[in-house]
Amino acid sequence: MQLQTIIVEDEEISREILKKYVGKYCPNVHIVGEASNIEDALVLIRNHELDLVFLDVEMPFGNAFDLLEKVGDRSFETIFVTAYDHYAIEALNSHASYYLLKPISIDELIKAVDHVVSIKTKENSLSDAVLSPKIETINGKITIPQQDGFEVLNVAEIVYCKADDNYTEIYINDSKIVVSKTLKYFEETLSQYPFARVHKSYLVNVNEVVKYKKGKGGSVVLSNGKEVMVSSTKKANLLSYFK
Predict the structure, then answer these.
(1) pTM of this structure
(2) Mean pLDDT, consecutive 10-residue segments, the chain of 243 residues?
(3) Which domains are delineated in the chain?
(4) What's the CA gap between 124 and 234, in Å, rounded?
(5) What is the Cα–Cα distance from 81 to 102, expressed in whole angstroms?
């Protein structure tokens, strides 16, 4: 699988080293551009269909996290490249595919690229296909607080949950229950079941996903016909549920 990529690195020597390593050891990676700052990187990202971005953390007038915030939902994977290991947690929170420390290990570079290839390959194979989740059945119940008591729901009947400020809308086929709890609460409550947070506003029952569509992050179609956008930062977790 060929990966379209750019290198975002403010130090010319570091750019040249990475470019040389990629060219020699990662023949399936095609470098379509380079940038030494955030603004030039944004131009490249907006003008190319990228699969991967090699991203230095510290740059003039901002850093990698500022760049990703400006990009918003993204269809490409990121490999962070930095001389500092204290950015690892923040990179993880930004859903980086891999974290490379300088000086770059060739073995680690190859592993990082192979990891991205596996993600993109699975995404392509699942796109527009009829999906079969790894977990086929759900057995369990949860209680939903109500003003006059509580209601008991079969977990398997929940199609998806949608955030509405400090409330959550729970959809069961064509019916909807509004609960005065946050979506984060239900994400934690349903953590033992195959529910995936695919977007800041959506938590879906993986067994109710019938189709995945590629795009900026992509989208999923649920059994009731509802199409839900998938945040780029949530994509890898969602894909892990499928065969």
Answers:
(1) 0.71
(2) 94 95 96 94 94 88 85 86 72 71 93 90 78 73 84 92 95 89 94 92 94 80 92 81 80
(3) 3-126 (3.40.50.2300), 141-239 (2.40.50.1020)
(4) 16
(5) 7
